[in-house]
Amino acid sequence: MKKVLIGAGIFFLASCSSDMNSTSESPEAEAPATQTASKRVCPSDLMREEILSRDPEARARVNAIEKYTENRINEIKVGKVLADGTVEIPVVFNVVYKTTAENVSDARLQSQIDVLNRDYGGTNSDVNNTPAEFASVKAGDTKIRFRLAKTVRKQSNTTLWDPDQNKMKAASTGIAATSPDNYLNIWIVNKMTDGTLGYAYYPGTITSSLDGVVIAAPYIGTGSGTSAPFNLGRTATHEVGHYLNLPHLWGSTNAGCQTDYSNDTPLSPGPNFGVPSYPLNRSCGGVSRSQMFMNYMDYSDDVSLYMFTTNQKQRMQAVVAASGPRSGLRLY
């Protein structure tokens, strides 16, 4: 188990009413509209690294958030604050589509809300698959829930979206965010570069107009129109975890063997893919450890992801607390 590394010199580096207006911008790139992937791709941490490498103010904000999170977790441990107050996060889905098939249905959007509520509530049936080795650190109910507040739809000629450009978030080329300090905005687009399934911004890293989560259409919700092996809604579970200040299990870069600021997740040399078999042992610093590949913050296929840990739960609760960096989500 790794120790949480937080302090003044250690900082966390964090990447249906409808509007049917059409846009006529030129495509960013010519490519087939349908996106399918065999391996999970999530650039959220790398995007965070890039932001913080060039923005000292963002680096300072993230450092302050990490110090606050450490203090909050310590207060929970000694009973100074209640750890079980449920927070319901209002969600706005911004669907930017080119073809009718990419205009994700209301039913699929609601299915995604249902998946988030099961996964974050610890009521997903597959959580019972948690190995005995990790049962003692299983989060159970994170006391975070999600409510569909609004769906905004807009047709676009763009066939391929670049996460670094965030054009789906501009009114001229996509849909502008709805009150991003008070709503979790989730943009759904047809296809992204580099096979990206989704990405999110960490608290304190980006201007509010760009804040939120982006998911490629084949990986949102469940049922018809989704693409295996990422067809169970766990891409959104993973990306919302980033939005709520959870890094990948291997740390802030793909070099691995770094802290994820949760001392109840085993140190990991990098992502796990596909459908791993338990036990899976991998080494950091010459020490072999059993891998928690079933954690939502790993890269395993949807069918293999089904748990958060207690420390991850505490980190998310700190973010949405009344004095936390995403406290505005509590207002609606």
Break the fold down into its secondary structure elements and pairings.
Elements: H1 44-54, H2 56-77, E1 87-97, H3 106-121, H4 132-135, E2 144-155, E3 184-189, E4 198-200, E5 213-216, H5 234-243, E6 281-284, E7 287-290, H6 310-320
Parallel strand pairs: 1-2, 1-3, 3-5
Antiparallel strand pairs: 4-5, 6-7
3D structure, described in words:
The protein is of the alpha/beta class. The protein is 22% helix and 13% strand. It contains six helices and seven strands. The protein has a five-stranded mixed β-sheet with strand order 2-1-3-5-4. Strands 6-7 form a two-stranded antiparallel ribbon. Helix 1 (44-54) packs across helix 2 and helix 2 (56-77) crosses helix 6 (310-320). The chain is globular and about 50 Å long.
Quick summary:
By secondary structure, the protein is an alpha/beta fold. Helices cover 22% and strands 13% of the residues. It has helices at 44-54, 56-77, 106-121, 132-135, 234-243, 310-320, and strands at residues 87-97, 144-155, 184-189, 198-200, 213-216, 281-284, 287-290.
Relative strand content = 5-15%
Spatial order of strands in the largest sheet: 2-1-3-5-4
- The mean pLDDT is 87
Q: How is the biggest beta sheet arranged?
A: 5 strands, mixed
Radius of gyration: 19 Å
Principal-axis shape equals: globular
Structural class: alpha/beta
Tally of helical segments: 6
- Tell me the helix content: 10-25%
Poorly predicted runs of 5 or more residues: 1-33, 78-83
The end-to-end distance, rounded to whole angstroms, is 38 Å
SSE succession: HHEHHEEEEHEEH
Q: Count the E strands.
A: 7
Seen as an oligomer or otherwise, the chain set is single chain
